[in-house]
Amino acid sequence: MPSVLVGELPAGARPVDVREADEWAAGHAPDAVHLPMSELGNRLHELPEDQDPLYVICRSGGRSGRVVQYLVGQGYPAVNVEGGMQAWAAAGKPLAGEGPDAPQVI
């Protein structure tokens, strides 16, 4: 499965975040596209068309790895972001949240 480290993401990459709504609301990459794994099959039309490859991210890399396998099987150029949002936060990358609390990865 193709993968990339958080530090190797190109500038301007917009990760496809496949975590669930509560995880997204707590903290996500500011420019990410939210497509929960549980809804992906019905929302493929929402994948960014201007990004090749698609950088798929979850909390730690497990769910995103499964999504990458699925997307590659469907003909999409997808890459797993190793370590997920935990690695993103550990690398000091910016986080955005949807509530009054400070953004965090849950």
UniProtKB/TrEMBL annotation:
Q: Which SUPFAM superfamilies match?
A: Rhodanese/Cell cycle control phosphatase
Q: Which domain of life is it from?
A: Bacteria
- Cite the Rhodanese domain residue spans from the record: 9-97
Q: Which InterPro entries match?
A: GlpE_sulfurtransferase, Rhodanese-like_dom, Rhodanese-like_dom_sf
Q: What is this protein called?
A: Rhodanese-like domain-containing protein
Q: Which organism is it from?
A: Pseudonocardia eucalypti
